[in-house]
C-alpha cells in the first residue's frame, strides 16, 4: 500500500471530513510516531503510528465487517425512502467508505459483509467465481425429494431464466418445512422465486455462510463487528487474486 496523506488517512478512518481533520491537524491534535505533525499532506505508511487526540489508530490496508442483517432494511448505501443497512452502522463507520458486499432482500436476515476492499467484493459478487452461499429457510409446505432434484437440475424462474444447479437439503426429516439451501449465484430474490416456481413460499430466510465465512451465532440481529484476523483469512481463502 502506497504512503497516503495524513488528512486522507484520518478521513478514511471515519474521523471527519477532509476539511475537519485538516483543522485538527493544524491545531496540533495529531501525532505521527510520537511527533506532533501539523502538515495535512504529510505522507504516512501502515508502519507509522498515528495518534489522533489520545487514540492510537489501528490501521489496515482494508477493513472487513460482518453484520447480522435485520429484516427492516434494504441492502443499499442510501435510499430516499427506505431504511438501509448503512443506518445500522455507527457514524464513524458510515464515514469509512465501507460498502455492503452483494445484497440481501429487505425481509431476509443474516450474514452481510461490509468492506473497503473492492477486489474482494468483486470476487464475492461476480457470477464467474461461483462463490457458494448457504441459507437457512422455512417453507410454507413440506419439501420433497422432487424439490431437491429440481434444485439440482436448475429451476426456470418467472422471467424464463434457468438457474444454475443448486443444493437443497432437509436436515431433519421430521421437519420437512425447514431446509438448507446452497447457491452459487444471486439473482434478485432467487431462493424465493425458485420455491415459487415449485408452488411453495419461503416463510423465513437467513443467510448463514458466504464462501468459508460463517455468521457469528452470538451476533444479535442488526448488530455488526469487525472480522478477526482468522475470519479475514477464511474470507480470502478462495480469492487467490488478492493473496
From TrEMBL:
List GO terms (cellular component aspect): cytosol
Q: Which SUPFAM superfamilies match?
A: Alpha-L RNA-binding motif, Pseudouridine synthase
Which terms in the Gene Ontology molecular function aspect does this entry carry?
RNA binding; rRNA pseudouridine synthase activity
Residue limits of the RNA-binding S4 domain? Answer: 4-62
- UniProt-listed Pfam families: PseudoU_synth_2, S4
Keywords (alphabetical) are: Isomerase, RNA-binding
Keyword Isomerase attributed: yes
The major lineage groups are: Bacteria, Pseudomonadati, Spirochaetota, Spirochaetia, Leptospirales
Which family does the record claim for this protein?
Belongs to the pseudouridine synthase RsuA family.
CDD domains of this UniProt entry?
PseudoU_synth_RsuA, S4
Q: Which residues form a coiled coil?
A: none
Name a biological process GO annotation.
enzyme-directed rRNA pseudouridine synthesis
Kindly give the InterPro entries that the UniProt entry links to this protein: PsdUridine_s_RsuA/RluB/E/F_cat (IPR042092), PsdUridine_synth_cat_dom_sf (IPR020103), PsdUridine_synth_RsuA/RluA (IPR006145), PsdUridine_synth_RsuA/RluB/E/F (IPR000748), PsdUridine_synth_RsuA/RluB_CS (IPR018496), RsuA_PseudoU_synthase (IPR050343), S4_RNA-bd (IPR002942), S4_RNA-bd_sf (IPR036986)
Q: What is this protein called?
A: Pseudouridine synthase
- What's the Enzyme Commission number for this chain? 5.4.99.-
**Organism source for this protein?**
Leptospira meyeri
Q: Which SMART domains match?
A: S4
* Listed Gene3D superfamilies: Alpha-L RNA-binding motif, Pseudouridine synthase I, catalytic domain, N-terminal subdomain, RNA-binding S4 domain
Amino acid at each position: 500500500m502506497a504512503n497516503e496523506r495524513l488528512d486522507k488517512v484520518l478521513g478514511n478512518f471515519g474521523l471527519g471530513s477532509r476539511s475537519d481533520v485538516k483543522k485538527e491537524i493544524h491545531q496540533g491534535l495529531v501525532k505521527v510516531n510520537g511527533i506532533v505533525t501539523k502538515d495535512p499532506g504529510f505522507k504516512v505508511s501502515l508502519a507509522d503510528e498515528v495518534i489522533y487526540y489520545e487514540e492510537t489508530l489501528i490501521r489496515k490496508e482494508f477493513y472487513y465487517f460482518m453484520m447480522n442483517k435485520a429484516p427492516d432494511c434494504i441492502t443499499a448505501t442510501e435510499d430516499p425512502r427506505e431504511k438501509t443497512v448503512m443506518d445500522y452502522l455507527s457514524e464513524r463507520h458510515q464515514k469509512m467508505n465501507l460498502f455492503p458486499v452483494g445484497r440481501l432482500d429487505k425481509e431476509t436476515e443474516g450474514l452481510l459483509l461490509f468492506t473497503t476492499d473492492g477486489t474482494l467484493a468483486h470476487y464475492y459478487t461476480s457470477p464467474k467465481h461461483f462463490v457458494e452461499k448457504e441459507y437457512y429457510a422455512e417453507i410454507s409446505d413440506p419439501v420433497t425429494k422432487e424439490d431437491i432434484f429440481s434444485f439440482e437440475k436448475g429451476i426456470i424462474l418467472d422471467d424464463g431464466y434457468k438457474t444454475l444447479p443448486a443444493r437443497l437439503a432437509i436436515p431433519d426429516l421430521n421437519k420437512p418445512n425447514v431446509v438448507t439451501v446452497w447457491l452459487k449465484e444471486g439473482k434478485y430474490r432467487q431462493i424465493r422465486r425458485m420455491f415459487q416456481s415449485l408452488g411453495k413460499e419461503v416463510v423465513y430466510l437467513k443467510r448463514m455462510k458466504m464462501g468459508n465465512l460463517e455468521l457469528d451465532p452470538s451476533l444479535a440481529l442488526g448488530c455488526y463487528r469487525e472480522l478477526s484476523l482468522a475470519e479475514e483469512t477464511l474470507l480470502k481463502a478462495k480469492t487467490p487474486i488478492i493473496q
